[in-house]
Amino acid sequence: MAMRAFRWLSLLAAISILTLSSLAFVPESHGNACENCHKDPIFRLHNHKLYSYYQDWLTSPHSAAGLSCDQCHGGDPSTDDMTAAHKGIYSTSDPKSRIFYKNQPQTCGTCHAEVTRSFTESKHFQSLTVYDELAPNCSTCHRAMNRKPYYHDIVDATCRSCHKRDMLNSVSERAEEILRRLNIAKGYLGWTTLYYDMKGWPEQTKQTVAGLSSKYHGIVAKGHSFDLADSDRTSAELLSELLLIFDSAWKECQRKQECKKLSAQKDATP
Ligand code: HEC
Ligand code: HEC
Ligand code: HEC
Ligand code: HEC
Ligand code: HEC
Fold this sequence. Notes:
Elements: H1 2-11, H2 13-19, H3 33-38, H4 43-46, H5 48-58, H6 61-64, H7 70-73, H8 82-85, H9 104-109, H10 113-119, H11 123-129, H12 138-142, H13 151-162, H14 170-199, H15 203-222, H16 228-255, H17 259-268
Bound molecules: heme C (HEC) (5 copies).
């Protein structure tokens, strides 16, 4: 059972992303002269950096959510004139830029308020803003346009590069274990949601799953304060609560031979 369940979980990862979005607050965007000009394929040849930032944006959850460039960079998206459009946009290394490393939490925080509130409680944020020390900010872990990061890559590319003097490697090991649990939790939530979307939700189950889904997002947001003891405890609790729900749904699905139907439906989704 376990093997098949895991095959399902990986198959459904893409779907769970759709159903589990964290519902960030999004102010309205006006026009997209930025995109119209920046998408010009000529940049592939003439200015490769522009080209690659645009490609990153195209495949990011932000583009999927309909965000435009100016919502992070500022500028005027209603004009085709480059100079006018770039008014208020500075190079990343300029402290006036909205994406200068110290300004990023504020910029991202207009939409990701809960995550950012936790982040400002962390030693990372203090090191960054008060002591001017090398510490990660939002784009260190999520990259510029925030392609969806896979947790294992985040730990390898970030935590391990700074916390390696820690002899037991305990920060990175613990972070990886916590994130592994959250990733499985996301898989359980995604599968359970898909199953009951197909067959109809019992009211009680619906409430329980909605509660666990917001608990999941709460734990991820709180995780940005990097209180590992707290995340360790809450992620383990969440996983065992979700396992109960998932397990009973999975058994029901097999008993009623609905899993084949679900599989066919999954293949039909684009
Ligand atoms: C979710 C916020 C966000 C959105 C939306 C976004 N960017 Fe960015 N962008 C950033 C961040 C953060 C950086 C900082 C660079 C880094 O750390 O790699 C950046 C860097 C850049 C850079 C390099 C700037 C420099 O000074 O080197 C370019 C060019 C760029 N973005 C273009 C765009 C374009 C064009 C769009 C729309 C198609 C866009 N961005 C949408 C957040 C965003
Ligand atoms: C008519 C074309 C055009 C429009 C419109 C335009 N850009 Fe640009 N943008 C460019 C070009 C070309 C560059 C390369 C740098 C330069 O020549 O200034 C650039 C550079 C940038 C950079 C990097 C800045 C740096 O200092 O490294 C960012 C960020 C950016 N644009 C964002 C935007 C945003 C946001 C908008 C809309 C509000 C926008 N652009 C509208 C053509 C355009
Ligand atoms: C104008 C609003 C807005 C701004 C500004 C913004 N985001 Fe987002 N972000 C969203 C929306 C909407 C989504 C997609 C829905 C969701 O997952 O909440 C999203 C998704 C994400 C995700 C993927 C979340 C997931 O479900 O796994 C990450 C990571 C992220 N944003 C980080 C950032 C970072 C870092 C910045 C600053 C550089 C930023 N965002 C700026 C609105 C915004
Ligand atoms: C030290 C690394 C690190 C830093 C710094 C960081 N994050 Fe994250 N972030 C993560 C990890 C790890 C996850 C969980 C990814 C997963 O579950 O696959 C995450 C998840 C998220 C999510 C998804 C939330 C959800 O409910 O699913 C958003 C949005 C986000 N981060 C935004 C931000 C913003 C905004 C900042 C800056 C204020 C930031 N992050 C700083 C590592 C980081
Ligand atoms: C760019 C370097 C850098 C990266 C990347 C980084 N950290 Fe840190 N981290 C720091 C610094 C600097 C401090 C503050 C040290 C201090 O003040 O004792 C810190 C502190 C911490 C603390 C607090 C330790 C304590 O004593 O309370 C934890 C936990 C932590 N980091 C976890 C992580 C995790 C998990 C990741 C990856 C998702 C990560 N860090 C990525 C630099 C980094």
